[in-house]
Fold:
Amino acid sequence: SQTIHQWPATLVQPVGSPLSLECTVEGTSNPNLYWYRQAAGRGLQLLFYSVGIGQISSEVPQNLSASRPQDRQFILSSKKLLLSDSGFYLCAWSVRAGHSSGNTIYFGEGSWLTVV
Amino acid sequence: AQSVAQPEDQVNVAEGNPLTVKCTYSVSGNPYLFWYVQYPNRGLQFLLKYITGDNLVKGSYGFEAEFNKSQTSFHLKKPSALVSDSALYFCAVRDADSGGGADGLTFGKGTHLIIQP
Structure:
């Protein structure tokens, strides 16, 4: 069966420091990968998605970047964190499809980031 | 553009009573519709989805949802609520006709479901 791992689970970082959140998926190949942010325990915002190694699409302009160095690895980064980057970050995956599909998106357990 | 509305921030139900969590959507094409549940400080768990076929979809933990195309709704239901059903519930949509890419789901803002003993 497929599993998704995301770490660290919690992180407290000072303003201006770098960030790296990592996500890996097991039990599947060529997945679509996603990073979402959830603010204040509510609404989910899609930040990035990837259909393959080195292929990243950004949904919103922001202080963050994403990379996919391996097929099942997805990394969320920042060079200098802002207070507004605080939130709950969720990595997710789905089976790759060549067109818009009914494939389910499956989420990791999330990472709490507090910027102080 | 696609969007989802969950009109209730919170729904309170007594244990054993039926529950409904409302969701309406807007897409330019045909919808793929999903429900997820989130427990405190956890990721989202998939409950059920509508892709095509029978308008009544059954999912995990005794939940079901009914797709109503004319009302553009996909309400989540359960015949008898449990205290353990208390959580944050998200409805999500994807446009089936959007084509290409790996577009993520568009989520509603979530509804807190509180089941009172």
Summary: Chain A touches chain B at residues 6, 32, 34, 36, 41-44, 46, 49-51, 57, 59, 90, 92, 94, 96-97, 99-102, 104-110, 112 (CB under 8 Å). Chain A has a mean pLDDT of 91. The radius of gyration of chain A is 14 Å. Residues 92 and 103 of chain A are 12 Å apart (CA to CA).
